[in-house]
Write a structure and sequence with these properties.
Layout (H helix, E strand, L loop, with lengths): L3 H10 L6 E2 L6 H4 L11 E3 L4 H13 L4 E4 L18 E4 L7 E4 L4 E5 L4 H8 L4 E2 L10 H7 L6 H4 L6 E7 L7 E4 L25 E8 L1 E2 L3 E9 L4 H13 L3 E8 H10 L15 E9 L10 H13 L6 E7 L1 H16 L3 E8 L5 H15 L4 E2 L2 E2 L5 E8 L7 H20 L10 H11 L2 H14 L11
Parallel strand pairs: 2-4, 3-4
Antiparallel strand pairs: 1-2, 5-6, 6-10, 7-11, 8-9, 8-10, 12-14, 12-15, 13-14, 13-18, 16-19, 17-19
Helix pairs in contact: 7-9, 8-10
Length: 473
């Protein structure tokens, strides 16, 4: 266990009695992750300002104490929870939620890293704006930046990286240096764009405490459909046709496998099954079209436009569509957003977050449906994802609970799936969830030596202290 004098010293630095939790406090919520991971924390730091966080970090670096930054703790790769040594401290952002500085002229928002996405968008709604990275979970802004999340509307708005104008970060050096990159400029080519160092790098190079976010106008018209492709090959024919016909009005193209939808319906009985006779297809795609303006007189409605586009695609050569069901957006999105919990409750879940060139994604899924049963016959494929950008949540469910030899089984499974992803299909083993302890071995194995060398050097320059769950050595 960590020497008690360190916790006493951290409490001396604290600006509030709420800022430091010790072994006598209930730390379970900070030690347990979203996907079966659980560690033991020596303490939990809950600073309220960048300056308070800086003091904590400087003390820990000086004394060689490892810190694990934690935002909303909704990740699935064990990146935000401590190990089991009880020697690491958790640095939580959950009290860094007071900054909310809206700039309507710049269409931007300076916000604390501990604010939840749901609260950000709830407070922006009255201004007709939103932060356009849409997720099923409700993370904090700091974690979204650290993992560069993409979400269901990546196709139209891009990822967090594309929507971050500036940020403030605390470095893990002897001084806990505060790096202020919080300008809301949309164009600034005066040298290295240093904010990018802290986006998608899981808190290893520094801890984001504030950010300036790009905002977008809230959609005023929305139409959705569930599309059943005629074949795997037809998926990208349908996508390409919709992109031509709808242009920037196409905002989502989300895949849902039959198994994933079935578990969503089982877990959430309130969901309406829209398919004829309740027969769930092997694959359905959520298509969304949106407009940012109110309906205009004489203009074709967004619903009629989507229906017309689908009718035209129906007549294209090769029978690209087997079915198309236009429905209420709230009902169709409810199905998509229920899948994560449905799959999670279907058995012991092994979750992969993979990405491919989008024309290759269906080939990977076909390969897995053909070969996974030969190697792991007891697993059920429950994939869903952001097919419009090549990302897939490749979830595998082990019905009835975890296998008896869980640790060895999971290693063998992950090694097999990721080897095929990277070596056979030239994909990424982490599309938008970062590295974390679950992916550390794959970073070590598949990252080119030249890139690892640069990463190690950058780590030494920015945050030489023990920070984060990822190691570049």
């Amino acid at each position: 266990m960590l020497n008690e004098r360190h916790i006493a010293s951290l409490r001396h630095l604290a600006r509030s009695g709420k800022s430091v939790l010790g072994p006598e406090d209930d730390l379970a919520g900070y030690e347990t992750g979203a996907r079966h991971d659980k560690g033991r924390a020596a303490f939990v730091l809950r600073p309220e300002t960048s300056e308070e966080l800086s003091g904590f970090v400087a003390y820990c670096v000086t004394n060689g104490i490892s810190l694990i930054p934690q935002s909303g703790n909704t990740g699935v790769v064990s990146g935000s929870t401590p190990d089991r040594s009880k020697l690491q401290g958790v640095l939580s952002l959950d009290r860094m939620n007071t900054v909310f500085d809206l700039n309507l002229r710049n269409r931007s928002l300076r916000v604390g890293a501990g604010m939840r996405l749901s609260e950000v968008n709830a407070r922006l709604e009255e201004h007709g704006l939103f932060f356009p990275v849409d997720l099923s979970a409700d993370p904090m802004i700091g974690g979204m930046i650290a993992t560069n999340t993409g979400g269901g509307r990546f196709l139209r708005y891009g990822d967090v990286r594309a929507n971050t104008l500036g940020l403030k970060a605390v470095l893990a050096d002897d001084n806990g240096s505060i790096l202020d990159l919080n300008k809301g400029l949309r164009k600034n080519n005066t040298g290295v764009d240093w904010k990018q160092v802290f986006i998608g790098t899981v808190g290893t190079f520094g801890i984001v405490t504030e950010a300036v976010l790009n905002l977008e106008p809230l959609p005023r018209q929305s139409a959705t459909a569930l599309v059943v492709p005629g074949s795997d090959d037809a998926v990208f024919q349908v996508l390409a046709s919709l992109e031509r016909k709808l242009g920037p009005q196409l905002s989502a193209f989300e895949s849902m496998s039959g198994n994933a939808m079935r578990h969503a319906f089982d877990h959430a009985p309130s969901l309406r099954n829209p398919f004829a006779n309740g027969d769930i297809p092997d694959l359905a795609i959520l298509v969304e079209a949106t407009r940012t303006w109110e309906p205009r007189e004489g203009e074709i409605s967004i619903d009629d436009l989507l229906e017309a586009c689908l009718a035209e695609i129906w007549e294209e050569p090769g029978e690209p569509l087997a079915d198309a069901l236009v429905g209420r957006p709230e009902e169709i999105w409810a199905l998509r957003h229920s899948i994560s919990e449905g799959v999670k409750n279907a058995g012991h879940l092994f979750a992969f977050d993979l990405a491919f060139e989008r024309g290759i994604l269906m080939d990977f899924l076909a390969y897995m449906h053909n070969h996974l049963p030969d190697t792991f016959p007891d697993l059920e494929i429950c994939d869903f994802g952001h097919i419009g950008d090549g990302g897939v949540h490749f979830n595998l469910s082990h019905p009835g609970g975890p296998p008896a030899d869980l640790e060895a089984y999971e290693k063998r499974l992950r090694d097999w799936v990721i080897d095929i992803c990277v070596n056979e299909f030239d994909g990424s083993f982490s599309a938008e969830h970062g590295i974390g302890r679950k992916n550390q071995a794959y970073y070590d194995q598949y990252t080119p030596d030249a890139i690892k060398k640069l990463s190690r050097a950058l780590k030494q320059v920015t945050s030489p202290g023990p920070l984060g769950s990822v190691h570049f050595d």
